[in-house]
Design brief:
The complex is a heterohexamer.
Chain A (H helix, E strand, L loop, with lengths): L1 H36 L15 H11 L10 H17 L7 E5 L5 E4 L7 H22 L3 H31 L6 H10 L8 H14 L11 H4 L9 H26 L8 H8 L6 H26 L7 H30 L5
Antiparallel strand pairs in A: 1-2
Helix pairs in contact in A: 1-2, 1-9, 1-11, 2-9, 3-4, 3-9, 4-5, 5-7, 5-12, 7-9, 7-12, 9-11
Chain C lengths: L6 H21 L3 H26 L3 H31 L13
Chain F lengths: L16 H5 L1 H13 L25 E3 L14 H5 L5 E7 L12 E9 L8 H5 L5 E3 L14 E2 L1 H4 L15 H8 L9 E2 L2 E2 L5
Antiparallel strand pairs in F: 1-4, 2-3, 3-5, 6-7
Classes of the chains: A mainly alpha, B mainly alpha, C mainly alpha, D mainly alpha, E mainly alpha, F alpha+beta.
Chain lengths: 352, 486, 103, 463, 170, 200
């Protein structure tokens, strides 16, 4: 029992630490990748290849002067970024990071903070609360740009949640009707990854994920040409840092979810053959770690794709954004759902 | 079938009249009403005065499941009242020939509709049907008063309507209450016999409640003393024909209702409350007479006299004696005829002189002797001089009331004296004395007016001298009624 | 999980919440807050239904809650649309200003 | 049931009209659809007493079908009446769809057998009406009416739900039949909160039919809403709500009548007094009709109060609904056309008899019917109610009803007086569409016709 | 702890918080604060759902109420810029009446609970009713008709909201 | 009227199904950006690497001394006049006895300041100078923290006596010859809006 608690505690710490670290290094990679895509060099002064840049940025954030607008609601002003960060971190808790392993004493540990049977819903729940951080922050700033940014952010997030949810329903049907993330990943172990059955669903999910994380080309909430800094115009110092950080954490988590949902999570092609080849038996902790490595690689690829998209595509106009969300993605996702039902019926996975 | 025809014919006639334009309407209406009178005479002839109820019956189920029937028939009393109605309506229509009414087709149509409803009230043998006709009678008169009435017609007609409607809703409740206790072969029934039986089966307390529920409607309609306040104003403000209808016939609806739909249903209620009602009636008689004495407006005077008369009639009815009831019936007929005459006179006065104010009138006898004679006959009829039609009724009434209670009789007798006082005083003031400035010329009467007055005077004298046919009918009807009450 | 708690406590709790909501509806002027108080009332009902559902070991109570949620969402959508329309017209949503209809 | 499905289908179809450009055809299609729904509804009449659908969620028994019939008939007339109303509005399609959806809810209320369907029915009926009440976007009064209606409606829903929850808590089921059997089997040992639940449902339903003291929203809403929507509210909605109350209290909670009759009697008494006396003081016609509808609600509630479930009582409420609905349609049809210029005061009717004698006559008939004067159908409606009530222990209510009816006659007659006796300086005839005139005439004729032969309703809806 | 089980502690704390926040919703001057308190209340209620073994409902509750409905509220408040506490207060009388009415209702309702026998909730046998699978089964068998007809409700609400929300082109 | 032939006619043609899906276009765009990863970076990592400057690079100014070490500038003000950015100010003074070795002629610039924030390094001052006193060099203006520090006085502009700056590359023969032409104000031959440099 105690061991279990300690283990869970450690996993928690690792996941949160990982989230933060990945977020931090995402900023570095963002800059590096954007430089690469634009024939530049990118950060290269702090440490080799500029690897210490995130630390420097963080330090700078901490030591910047903290400015809280006079007429704003102080409490809410502080609450906004904290909430945003909190919800961003909370999403990580249901993601299965690796195969569960068995110790010699026979007890099984999973590479996951908690495996609740309605993990998908949990994700949606937490994501839907995430809006509050932005809205409260934007509103409490008492700045019209911030307010407009916040309103844009929230309406955008709410709009795209719909299509996202429906595409996930299709996914759930494909993966045998479970809402548990670990089971969704597990059932891709034996067969093929869900992307094969859900290409359209993935596309929709991906686009929605971009919108949900306020990433380009859907970064209207913070589009500097119109709204100065968007919802965090009035923020400075570490509170601004929290917003930026949380955004990268969101990106990390949504990449992880995409990898888990559509690309088999910690599974990879011919994994079993590979494990046999190097002589690992089921339940070994190394399998978990290798799986985690595979998973992490996928995540990194997705993060890179996120960035790649950002530095390629121009920003949408607001009406185009809504048009895309409601008039294209929503019908498409419904279509996808319908197709999925038909396909799964013929595959024999669902019965009426 | 004939009885149903008596109802149906005026209805059809009125519908027809509604769509006739101009003065043809009134001629047509007159013609129809005369035909209706002839029809009723036919009924009178066909009626066998043999103490059997409900001759010339017509019965057809209306709402089967609720025991509502379209059931009509005649007994002595209703036949008399039907005759009165059909007799008066042509006269009333004729009396309007001198008045130009806007939209005449509606006016005469409504009068005929009114006739239909009144006949319906008198011949209905089904409680529900009775109530429907009772309410239905209200609508045409409401419109007649409202559309062609005097200056304050809107508010006064309103008062009239609300009063009577109010009362009749109570009656409905009372009747439904009794109806709920009926049992005709396991079903509920609205037939009056069933209602009588059901009413008698109620306990005394229940009967008193029902008594008051139903009585209020009739009391308002008649009107009896505390419920009378709508009446003088309405009489004064209604057009003359409306007033004639109201006083000549509608008033009888109330008294008739008491006879046919109250007394037989709740004999115990009568026993308990009869005294009270008698008191009220007698108070009404004296009170109205006293007020009539001081009236300056002739029409208003007649209105109060009408209250006094009806008080007497109701006292007679509630005495529940053969004489009292028979007198009431006779007096109803006489009063109906007389009061129409009186109102016509009021109308003639205003047409010729422009006023009804007693102080401003005088010396008309000198200008138009015929008129004075006719007026006098009618007036004497209404003060119940022997050999006029009023006498027999009033005599029987006072007799009946005296049988019920000597004091009541005494006060009722007082009414005769008081009646003579105000009537003669009005005659004196109008016909005798000096001429007043404003009525320099009182030309000859219009032929129609003259005709009506002559007819009325004829009737007054004829039935004063030879009341037997009517009296026989009334006697048999009342006997029948008394068997139901006991 | 819930062993040992009487249903009466849940009854009490949701009643209190319900009444707080009702008082809010009656006592506040701001339309939005009135609206929120109605939501609070509905949630009190939801809580009660779930408690009873657990008591009876019957899922239909929980299913009913779904319908309440759907209806609440629909009502809010319509209500806020009306509110924003009112706001467009009068630039205020105090129920006070909404007294063009005489009482 | 088929009727319900057809009406839902029509609602969806209406929404497609904009896209596929058959707006002009929409009204005929809807009318036809209603007729078909009507017919199909009555096809089920031949079946046994109750056919239930979807595991006892909804059952169109004869009572349900009869009430649906009234609702559909009223809706039919309403749609014809609304012809030009739809034409002048830019959101025609949405209006059609919303009204049809409201009808779906109303039909559900006539036939629910489960608390879920009751609740959903009420909401499906109400939500479109909230919108419709507020549909005059530029008119702040309309907006306000919509919002008030919404707030009060949701507030009432809260009570309804709390009641349902409590009853569920006691009986463990949402099914009406099971609740009824629970009442009979647990006659003595029911927890107290079950009764509270019943009372709360009663209160909520009284909110919905706007019985005093839960009526305060009604005049405002009726006044502010577009006239035709008010007509819809006071006919279809009322009828449906009464069908629901009837089923709930005469079928479901009949066994605990000792709990709710007292409360109901109080509500009725208050409604009668407040409604009639307030109505008498109104100068706005729509407001007056609102109060009048409250008093009619009280009358219909009396039948429920009598708590006698037999042919007579069902007939009574059925007949009352029909008479009231048809009469109201006639009245509102006239009011709608007369108040088109924006003047909703009583003086808008001045001299109508001169200007439009036909319309004045119809209005007269409608008013007489609402006042309950023979031989209009309103009279028989009242008569049936009295008959039902007289056998109960609440006779005092009857007396009150009689007194207040007389007051009622007063304000209905005010309209008639205005039409016939008040002068108008510029007597210009009110423009009225042929179709509107047709509806008004037809409904007036029906009012008279079913007044002359009231038995026909009982004969048609023989139970 | 003090003779209470953890469940009882949780229940107590959650209840206390729920009522506290609910009161704050009513008494808070600023609508935005009200919204946030209401969200907190919803979280407490969701906590109760978890206690009652209705996990699925708890999450749906959060998604629907906190995630959608309340965001909508916040949205509208922000759009209308109701930052100022400009709300005119109701008269004291109205407030008192509201309070008294509410108190009476509370009194009656609580009074009605008095006679009720103490029924203890137990998770035995109820742990599976709140699962998605079970709820889905019930929803799509017994409650199929309401489920289907709820689509009409949502459709109507959608049409209505759009009709009201959109600007007239005229 | 067509001014240039660079104008393009914008078409409003309806997109084909494939085009309206945008996906191929998006992928194409992404491929373009991705291809840039493998392109050579043009970045010069100053200060480790520096760019090669051309001989005529116009950098920081220098006030030259003559062969004997005396300042050439006589504060005639032509440079300030020529300066389009009005970056140059000066104050003259008369040479005192005993200062012959410091200043070449009787008048000299007591104060000579160039505001480097204003200067656009056009080199007109250099061209204007009749005394061969001011030249632009290939040195770069240092960064400073304060604005005042960018106003370079004589202390920074005049070349150090022991650290002479070679401006021979700028003093091309051509220029020198040009300036020696008598009778021509070498800096002010304006024709229209262009300086005619080609005398020969």
């Amino acid at each position: 029992m105690i061991a279990f608690v300690i283990y869970k505690f450690i996993v928690c710490v690792i996941v949160f630490g990982l989230s933060l670290a990945v977020a931090a290094y995402s900023t570095w990679w963002e800059r590096k990748l954007s430089a690469l895509l634009q024939d530049r060099v990118g950060p290269n002064r702090a440490g080799p290849f500029g690897l210490l840049q995130p630390l420097a940025d963080g330090g700078k954030m901490f030591f910047k002067e903290e400015i809280i607008p006079n007429v704003s609601n102080r409490f809410l002003f502080v609450l906004g970024p904290s909430l945003f960060m909190l919800t961003a971190l909370m999403t990580g808790s249901v993601i299965p990071w690796g195969k569960s392993f068995t110790t010699d004493s026979g007890s099984t540990y999973s590479f996951q903070i908690t495996d609740i049977n309605i993990g998908v819903l949990y994700l949606f729940g937490v994501v839907s609360i995430g809006v509050y951080g932005i809205m409260i922050g934007g509103w409490a700033s008492n700045n019209k740009y911030a307010l407009l940014g916040a309103i844009r952010a929230s309406s955008q997030m709410i709009s795209y949640e719909v299509a996202m949810g429906i595409s996930v329903i299709a996914l759930i049907i494909t993966s045998g009707g479970t809402l548990s993330l670990s089971e969704i990943v597990e059932q891709q172990d034996a067969g093929v990854a869900n992307i094969v059955w859900q290409p359209l669903g993935f596309l929709i999910f991906f686009i929605c994920a971009l919108a949900e994380t306020n990433r380009a080309p859907f970064d209207l909430p913070e589009c500097e040409s119109e709204l100065v800094g968007g919802y965090h115009t009035e923020y400075s110092s570490m509170k601004l840092g929290l917003f930026l950080f949380a955004e990268y954490i969101n990106m990390f988590i949504s990449s992880a979810i995409m990898a888990a949902f559509y690309f088999g999570g910690y599974n990879f092609p011919w994994a079993h053959e590979f494990y046999q080849w190097i002589g690992l038996h089921d339940g070994s902790v190394w399998i978990s770690i290798i799986g985690f490595g595979a998973f992490f690689t996928k995540i990194c690829i997705f993060i890179s794709v996120f960035m790649w998209v950002r530095w390629t595509l121009p920003r949408f106009r607001y009406d185009q954004l809504m048009h895309l969300g409601w008039k294209i993605l929503l019908p498409l996702s419904l279509l996808n759902l319908a197709i999925t039902v038909v396909v799964e019926y013929f595959r024999g996975n669902i019965h009426f | 079938m004939l009885t149903a025809l008596l109802i149906g014919f005026p209805l059809l006639a009125s519908l027809l009249v509604f769509f006739i334009k101009g003065n043809a309407a009134r001629n047509l209406a007159l013609g129809f009403s005369v035909i209706e009178f002839i029809l009723s005479l036919v009924a009178f002839v066909m009626y066998k005065n043999d103490h059997s109820c409900c001759q010339l019956r017509f019965d057809h189920a209306w709402v089967q499941s609720l025991g509502i029937h379209f059931s009509v028939g005649l007994d002595g009393i209703s036949l008399l009242l039907v005759l009165l109605t059909t007799f008066l309506v042509p006269l009333i229509i004729l009396s309007s020939y001198k008045n130009e009414y806007a939209n005449p087709s509606s006016f005469y149509g409504l009068i005929l509709l009114m006739q239909m409803a009144l006949v319906g009230v008198f011949v209905a043998n089904d409680g529900f049907l009775f109530y429907v006709f009772w309410e239905l009678a209200l609508i045409p008169i409401y419109f007649i008063c409202l559309l062609w009435g005097g200056d304050h017609r809107a508010s006064i007609t309103f008062k009239f309507f609300i009063y009577t409607f109010f009362g009749s809703l109570f009656m409905l409740v009372g009747l439904i209450y009794v109806y709920n206790h009926t049992n005709a072969d396991g079903l509920k029934s609205w037939a009056f016999q069933d209602l009588y039986n059901a009413g008698k089966s109620l306990t005394e307390n229940q009967q008193s409640v029902v008594f008051w529920l139903i009585f209020i409607a009739f009391a308002v309609k008649m009107p009896i003393f505390p419920f009378h306040t709508w009446q003088p104003d309405t009489y004064v403000n209604a057009p003359t024909q409306g007033t004639m209808l109201l006083s000549g016939i509608m008033l009888k609806m109330g008294t008739f209702g008491v006879m046919k739909w109250l007394l037989p249903i709740v004999p115990l209620g009568l026993a308990q409350w009869g005294n009270t009602v008698m008191c009220l009636s007698v108070i009404g008689v004296v009170y109205a007479s006293c007020i009539a004495i001081v009236q300056k407006d002739y029409k208003r005077l007649i209105a109060y006299s009408s209250i006094a008369h009806v008080g007497l009639i109701s006292a007679g009815i509630f005495s529940a004696t053969q004489q009292g009831l028979q007198g009431a019936v006779m007096q109803m007929l006489a009063h109906g005829v007389n009061v129409v005459g009186l109102f016509l006179i009021a109308d003639i006065l205003i047409r010729h002189t422009g006023t009804r104010h007693l102080d401003k009138l005088g010396g008309i006898r000198g200008m138009n002797g015929n008129f004075a004679v006719l007026f006098l006959i009618i007036l004497l009829g209404s003060v119940a001089l022997p050999l006029t039609n009023g006498f027999i009724g009033e005599f029987l009434l006072i007799n009946g009331i005296y049988q019920y209670g000597a004091w009541f009789g005494a006060f009722a007798g007082l009414s005769v004296i008081l009646g003579a006082v105000y009537m003669l005083r009005s005659y004196q003031s109008i016909m005798l004395g000096d001429r007043k400035d404003n009525n320099v010329v009182f030309g000859p009467l219009a032929s129609t007016d003259k005709a009506i007055l002559i007819i009325i005077c004829g009737v007054i004298i004829a039935f004063g001298v030879y009341p037997k046919p009517l009296n026989d009918l009334a006697e048999e009807g009342v006997k029948l009624l008394l068997t139901n009450i006991k | 999980m819930i062993n040992g708690i009487s249903i009466n406590y849940y009854l009490l709790l949701s009643t209190v919440l319900f009444i707080i909501g009702a008082i809010g509806v009656m006592a506040r002027r701001n339309s939005i807050i009135i609206f929120m108080c109605i939501e609070l009332m509905l949630n009190a009902v939801n809580l009660l239904l779930v408690a009873f559902s657990t008591l009876h070991h019957d899922a239909s109570g929980q299913v009913f809650v779904f319908f309440i949620m759907a209806v609440a969402a629909a009502e809010v959508a319509v209500g806020l649309a009306i509110l924003s329309m009112i706001y467009r017209n009068v630039k205020s949503i105090d129920t006070n200003l909404l007294s063009n209809l005489k009482n | 049931m088929k009727g319900l499905l057809i009406i839902s289908g029509l609602g969806v179809l209406a929404m497609l009209a904009e896209i596929f450009k058959f707006k002009k055809l929409l009204l005929p299609i809807v009318l036809l659809g209603i007729v078909v729904a009507y017919a199909l509804n009555f096809m089920e009449w031949t079946h046994d007493y109750s056919i239930s659908y979807f595991t006892n969620m909804i059952a169109f028994d004869r009572m349900g079908i009869a009430f649906s019939g009234i609702i559909l008939a009223t809706a039919f007339f309403w749609f014809i009446l609304a012809n030009d109303y739809f034409e002048e509005d830019s959101n025609v399609v949405d209006h059609f769809a919303l009204v049809l959806f409201a009808l779906v809810g109303a039909l559900m209320l006539t036939a629910f057998t489960n608390m879920t369907t009751l609740f959903l029915g009420i909401e499906i009926m109400s939500i479109p009406l909230y919108v419709l009440a507020a549909s005059q976007k530029k008119d702040i009064r309309s907006n306000e009416a919509g919002f008030k209606y919404l707030i009060m409606g949701s507030f009432a829903s809260g009570f309804l739900l709390f009641g349902i929850a409590l009853i569920y808590g006691a009986s463990g089921s949402f099914d009406l039949a099971q609740i009824t059997s629970y009442i009979t089997t647990h006659a003595s040992g029911m927890p107290m909160f079950f009764y509270v639940g019943v009372i709360m449902i009663l209160v909520a339903m009284c909110f919905k039919v706007s019985a005093a003291p839960f009526h305060f929203w009604a005049p405002d809403v009726y006044e502010g809403s577009p006239t035709l929507i008010t007509a819809l509210m006071s006919t279809v909605v009322k009828t449906a709500a009464f069908a629901a109350i009837m089923r709930l209290f005469l079928v479901g909670f009949s066994g605990v009548s000792e709990v709710w009759t007292g409360v109901l009697a109080g509500i009725i008494a208050l409604s009668l007094i407040i409604a009639n006396f307030s109505a008498a003081m109104q100068t706005n016609v729509k407001r007056m009709l609102a109060y009048s509808s409250i008093s009619h609600a009280a009358f219909m509630l009396m039948v429920v109060l009598a708590n006698i479930r037999n042919n007579i009582s069902v007939d009574a409420i059925l007949y009352y609904s029909l008479a009231y609905s048809i009469g109201s349609i006639a009245a509102f049809g006239v009011v709608y056309n007369v108040t088109k210029n924006g003047n909703e005061n009583l003086n808008a009717f001045n001299g109508l008899a001169k200007r439009n004698p036909g319309m004045a006559l119809c209005m007269t008939i409608a008013m007489l019917s609402l006042a309950g004067i023979p031989v209009t159908s309103g009279f028989f409606a009242k008569y049936f109610v009295f008959t039902t009530m007289i056998g109960t222990s609440h006779k005092w209510l009857l007396i009150l009803a009689v007194i207040t009816s007389a007051v009622g006659a007063y304000y209905y007659l005010k309209v008639i007086i205005a039409m016939y006796f008040k002068k108008l300086d510029t007597p210009e005839p009110v423009q009225i569409e042929r179709s509107n005139m047709m509806v008004i005439t037809l409904t007036s004729v029906i009012v008279i016709a079913i007044g002359i032969v009231p038995g026909i309703i009982a004969e048609i809806f023989r139970f | 702890m003090l003779g209470y089980t953890i469940t009882q502690w949780l229940f107590g704390i959650l209840s206390f918080l729920a009522i506290m926040f609910a009161l704050m919703v009513v008494f808070s001057r600023n609508p935005v604060n009200s919204v946030l308190y209401l969200v907190m209340t919803f979280f407490c209620i969701a906590g109760h759902y978890l206690l009652l073994n209705a996990q699925f409902l708890a999450v749906v509750h959060i998604v629907v109420y906190a995630g959608a409905i309340m965001v909508l509220f916040l949205f509208v408040i922000m759009l209308m810029d109701l930052n100022q506490d400009s709300e005119p207060q109701r008269t004291m009388v109205t407030k008192i009446i509201a309070g008294v009415a509410g108190g009476l209702m509370l009194f009656v309702l609580v009074g009605s609970l008095k006679g009720t026998e103490q029924l203890n909730l137990s998770s035995y046998g109820s742990s599976q009713i709140g699962t998605v699978k079970n709820l889905g089964k019930v929803l799509f068998s017994e409650f199929l008709f309401p489920f289907e007809i709820a689509s009409v409700l949502l459709l109507a609400a959608m049409v209505g909201a759009i009709m009201i929300g959109k600007k007239d082109i005229k | 009227m067509q001014l240039t032939n660079r104008s393009k006619v914008v078409s409003n043609k309806v997109q084909s199904g494939m085009e309206s899906m945008y996906l191929p276009a998006i992928l194409k765009g992404m491929m373009i950006t991705a291809s840039h990863i493998f392109k050579r970076r043009p970045t010069i990592r100053y200060p480790e690497q520096t760019r090669k400057l051309s001989a005529v690079y116009r950098g920081l100014h220098v006030l030259k001394r003559d062969e004997k070490g005396a300042e050439r500038c006589t504060a005639c003000g032509l440079c300030a006049l020529a300066c389009p950015a009005e970056a140059i100010t000066m104050e003259n003074a008369e040479r005192q006895k005993g200062e012959e070795s410091l200043y070449r002629e009787e008048k000299y610039a007591k104060v000579y300041e160039i505001n480097m924030l204003r200067c656009i390094f056009c080199g007109l001052c250099e061209e204007a100078c009749p005394k061969e006193a001011i030249f632009l060099t290939d040195r770069i203006v240092d960064t400073e923290y304060e604005r005042e520090d960018f106003i370079y006085g004589k202390d920074k502009l005049v070349e150090k006596i022991d650290k002479r700056i070679d401006v021979s590359k700028r003093q091309t023969l051509e220029v020198a010859e040009f300036k020696k032409i008598p009778g021509i104000k070498h800096n002010a031959v304006w024709e229209g809006n262009r300086i005619d440099r080609k005398i020969n």
